[in-house]
Specification:
Belongs to the archaeal Rpo3/eukaryotic RPB3 RNA polymerase subunit family. Residues 21-45 are annotated as: Disordered. This is DNA-directed RNA polymerase RpoA/D/Rpb3-type domain-containing protein. By secondary structure, the chain is α+β, with helices and mostly antiparallel strands. It is 21% helix and 29% strand. It folds into two domains: 16-108 and 261-276 and 331-376, RNA polymerase, RBP11-like subunit (Gyrase A, domain 2); 110-259, Beta Complex (RNA Polymerase Alpha Subunit, Chain A, domain 2). The chain contains seven helices and 15 strands. The longest helix has 23 residues, at 353-375.
């Protein structure tokens, strides 16, 4: 049986207060909760804290308290352009980060060509393949300005965008590249006539526009065009011709990938590179040279001595090249911070990436409100 003194010593024991323990190291229990450790065979400590048995298993519940989430959650924007955005999401579980990724890819709407009416196509590309290529052309227009086209509705100025393509390769030209800048927006709707039931009936087109789209203030000085004017649609030889109409409607990526407003949306955990002991002189140079991402650098200590330092840990891809060297394996520890995600969004051009992320937050909020309403 342990004595009273031994019980008191065990209760107050702290490994970090021992004189031979380097200061600043993450305590092992906290390391398991907050870091995934990269090893040669497989990563370790990959499980998260937020799951149904977290309290029963004795896991520290500080990560699932709402007030702690308010204090720890942060979003730091690293870079943002018209098409690309990189930001850090800190203090969040992987399940929520993945929810944002899935919403961005599959549940945010955009406008894409759904119906292609081909009047003439003498190119080598068959009609079905040509229509498929047309559908994948990104369109630079805000989908929030349009409504969904249901089966019971007629195509009109509020749910359909019409483009026209009529290109012919003249004789004497070796070959003509048909690019997306040849697509002409028809703000008045379709120009192709349906078959008339009789000579006295008024000819009908494939859309029912009551108002021209260029009369809307959003499009008066901003005509609708493809995002990129130089996407190759087809190549025509002399005498070949393409004449068609393309009707774009609103949809989501869950229905078809052409409606996904992002080229990709992905994340990775923030890498953490720790030198467990000093790496000096020849070993330091070897460590710097073995890393393909230039994570490490050389620090001059004077008197001909040099040591390695972790200069750019964010660039680490956990390739483990530094750990494959037997002399360096026990000196370098590669980790990933479980609640710190480097998130990247690449927009196709319908909306800026920061607006896409804001819309994703709104969709996730609406999902949460739906769940709460079911329980109330």
């Amino acid at each position: 049986m342990p004595t009273q003194e031994e019980k008191i010593f065990a209760k107050n024991f702290d490994i970090n207060k021992l004189p031979d323990v380097p200061p600043g190291l993450t305590p092992p229990p906290k390391l398991r909760r907050t870091r995934a450790v990269s090893k040669n065979d497989a990563p370790d400590h990959t499980q998260g804290n937020i799951y149904s048995g977290a309290y029963v298993a004795g896991v520290d519940d500080s990560t699932v308290k709402l007030e702690n989430f308010y204090e720890s959650f942060k979003v730091n924007v690293i870079s943002c352009t018209e098409t690309d955005m990189e930001f850090d999401m800190i203090g969040i579980d992987a399940s929520l980060a993945n929810a944002f990724r899935r919403i961005l890819i599959a549940e945010l709407p955009s406008m894409a060509i759904e119906k292609v009416l081909i009047a003439n196509n003498t190119s080598v590309i068959i009609d079905e393949v040509l229509a498929h290529r047309m559908g994948l052309i990104p369109i630079a227009v805000d989908p929030r300005l349009f409504e969904y086209l249901s089966e019971n509705n007629q195509p009109n100025e509020k749910n359909t965008i019409v483009f026209k393509l009529h290109v012919k390769c003249p004789k004497g030209v070796s070959r003509l590249n048909v690019l997306t800048n040849e697509l002409k927006w028809l703000p008045h709707g379709s120009e192709f006539l349906k078959e008339s039931g009789g000579s006295t009936s008024k000819p009908k087109t494939y859309t029912s526009f009551n108002q021209s789209q260029d009369s809307f203030p959003e499009f008066a000085d901003n005509p609708i065009t493809p995002t990129h004017p130089d996407i190759l649609i087809a190549k025509l030889s002399p005498g070949q011709e393409i004449e068609l109409e393309a009707h774009a409607v609103k949809g989501i990526g869950k229905t078809h990938a052409k409606w996904s407003p992002v080229g990709t949306a992905w994340y990775r955990m923030l890498p953490e590179v720790v030198l467990l002991e000093e790496v000096e002189d020849e070993l330091a140079e070897r460590l710097v040279n073995v890393c393909p991402q230039n994570v490490f650098d050389i620090e001059d200590m004077g008197k001909g001595r040099k040591r390695a330092t972790v200069a750019q840990p964010r660039k680490c891809t956990l390739c483990r090249e530094c750990e494959r060297d037997d002399d360096l394996a026990h000196r370098v520890d590669l980790r990933s911070v479980k609640d710190h995600f480097i998130f990247k969004i690449e927009s196709t051009g319908s909306l800026p990436p920061d607006v896409l992320f804001t819309e994703a937050v709104k969709i996730l909020e609406a999902k949460c409100e739906t769940v709460l309403a079911e329980f109330s």
